[in-house]
């Protein structure tokens, strides 16, 4: 029982006393209190409102509190809250059917997990079982989740203190702005990155490599749009060496780039598609693996040694069905394309031209990153403390963004309106206008 009035102070206090946080030194936290949300906006108990251009962790593609998704979850809760994965269940079947309908031809089954990390975990498991090989090649500039194999496959710093599983090898993916290959243009970057990957495969022993795992567009690493020919080249390498190609679409998928899947921009397809986040915007946790025909057929007469109590949880499945239907009916993926590649991209480009602190701007759909530099010629990354200062100033003016290292990721929900784009861009402009890089 509580006699407290619920306000920012009470909720903040509860959190600080009892909640252990992700990726944090626990003693120095000051979490923002959120009381409620609607569409692209969130607010606290004092009525302070924010335009959410972070989509939380780049997952609320359909926005907050979509009425069709809420009622689907409520209806499912009233009829059947939970059921073991071995049973056939209507919501699970309908969700899988819809996901297969969005996937390219040649994909036949869906394995459901609780989130993105365990989806990567199981895609890796499938690739190892299917090929009888062990090694997983993945990119240094990547994030695949924080469980055993998913964190070992991750390229960024979060892998190093968590590196307990073997069989993971990393390579450099293309990133022209900070090229690892001394490339001068995108063609050179692409060609050299592919040559490097071929050499890694040869040196690791092609017959030992089960899978190449890539984020189609590395997200947390900085929205690193690969050159057009790169993913096609990786597809060819995988085919040449009998390696399974896994594309992690956890952040880039389900509308984020203005397509259902980001690889649709690249005229190619993987063997396994990993998804989570946008599939139901996180209203109920869910993720999974979309399995191509040959791998799916392999498991018709080979035992799959994997499973989860909540695989295909009815509440999560009902949320997927309603989310995908609403996205379809309301043209939400088309909206991400129109708003993201129209006014949002134009506005960010103008900001990058106007403000020298923006060293590079990249993006597609509602998936953009501004790379901040203290010296545009040397491309010196703006120190983290300065980025936090900017983030704080944006929040003071009512805008939430996703920041990583020296970057501001501008990643609004796929439902963002032209007026909201204009509002967000104006706040960004005003903060950059009054910002001076410290000498
Ligand atoms: N893969 C990618 C590309 C991600 O961005 C993330 C999370 O940010 C994950 C996997 C892990 O997903 P989860 O946190 O749902 O386990």
UniProtKB/TrEMBL annotation:
Its cofactor is pyridoxal 5'-phosphate. Belongs to the class-III pyridoxal-phosphate-dependent aminotransferase family. The keyword Transferase applies. Keywords: Aminotransferase, Pyridoxal phosphate, Transferase. The keyword Transferase applies. One of its GO terms (molecular function) is transaminase activity. NCBIfam families: PRK06062.1. This is Aspartate aminotransferase family protein. CDD domains: OAT_like.
């Amino acid at each position: 029982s509580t006699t407290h009035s619920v306000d920012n102070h009470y909720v903040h206090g509860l959190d600080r006393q009892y909640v252990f946080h992700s990726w944090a030194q626990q003693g120095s936290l000051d979490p923002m209190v959120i009381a409620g949300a609607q569409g692209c906006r969130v607010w606290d108990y004092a009525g302070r409102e924010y335009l959410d251009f972070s989509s939380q962790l780049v997952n609320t593609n359909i926005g907050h509190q979509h009425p069709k998704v809420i009622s689907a979850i409520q209806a499912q809760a009233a009829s059947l809250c939970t059921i073991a994965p071995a049973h056939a269940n209507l919501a699970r079947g309908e969700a899988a059917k819809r996901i297969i309908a969005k996937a390219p031809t040649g994909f036949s089954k869906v394995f459901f997990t609780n989130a993105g990390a365990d989806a990567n975990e199981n895609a890796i498991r499938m690739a190892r079982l299917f090929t009888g090989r062990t090694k997983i090649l993945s990119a240094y500039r990547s994030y695949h989740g924080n469980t055993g194999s998913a964190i070992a496959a991750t390229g960024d710093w979060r892998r190093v203190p968590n590196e307990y599983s073997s069989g993971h090898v990393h390579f450099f993916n293309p990133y022209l702005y900070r090229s690892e290959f001394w490339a001068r243009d995108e063609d050179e970057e692409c060609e050299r990155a592919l040559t490097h990957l071929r050499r890694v495969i040869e040196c690791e022993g092609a017959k030992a490599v089960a899978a190449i795992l890539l984020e189609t567009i590395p997200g947390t690493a900085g929205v690193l749009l690969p050159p057009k020919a790169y993913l096609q080249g990786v597809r060819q390498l995988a085919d040449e060496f009998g390696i399974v190609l896994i594309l992690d679409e956890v952040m880039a998928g389900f509308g984020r780039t203005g397509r259902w899947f980001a690889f649709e921009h690249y005229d190619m397809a993987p063997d396994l598609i990993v998804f989570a986040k946008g599939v139901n915007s996180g209203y109920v946790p869910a993720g999974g693996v979309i399995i191509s025909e040959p791998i799916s057929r392999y498991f018709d007469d080979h035992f799959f040694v994997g499973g989860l109590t909540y695989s295909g949880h009815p509440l999560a499945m009902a949320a997927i069905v309603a989310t995908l239907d609403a996205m379809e009916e309301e043209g939400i993926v088309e909206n991400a394309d129109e708003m993201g590649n129209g006014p949002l991209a134009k506005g960010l480009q103008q900001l990058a031209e106007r403000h020298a602190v923006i060293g590079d701007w990249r993006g597609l759909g509602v998936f953009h990153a501004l790379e901040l530099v203290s010296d545009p010629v040397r491309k010196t990354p703006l120190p983290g403390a300065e980025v936090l200062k900017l983030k704080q100033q944006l929040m003071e003016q009512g805008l939430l963004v996703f920041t990583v290292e020296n970057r501001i990721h501008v990643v609004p929900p796929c439902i963002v309106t032209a007026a909201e784009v204009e509002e967000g861009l104006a706040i960004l402009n005003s903060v950059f206008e009054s910002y001076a890089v410290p000498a």
